[in-house]
Amino acid sequence: MTMSAAKTTQSTQSGETRSSAVMAAGTLVSRFLGFAKTWMLGAALGLGSTVNDTFINANNLPNLIFLLVAGGVFNAVLVPQIIKASKGPDRGADYISRLLTLAVLVLLALTALVTLAAPMVIDLTTQGYSPSRNRWP
User: The whole model's pTM is what?
Assistant: First the structure.
């Protein structure tokens, strides 16, 4: 192996090591910030209170919907279709425009539906609410 090939291999390994260290440090910082956020929310809202339970449920439901949609529809269906459409003469602009219009309309309808059905959604997505804590009519 020549001297320049050895330097290239060494610099590639050094770059990978540095990138791995940055990712590890970012993950560690993220974990500490998440712990601090949880601790502050517990201090601000109170542990085991109705307000805390409501906040946690209201925060987790959109995250759950996003994970289901992003993990399923985006990766399995939309990305391959967008890539296929991008090979067309308009580079997929018409397809993406129609797709975004449809997505906005579906999300608006879903938002209205979930808002109207909020008491039932809370009953489905929570456990341990006693009738005295449940204030739905």
Answer: 0.49
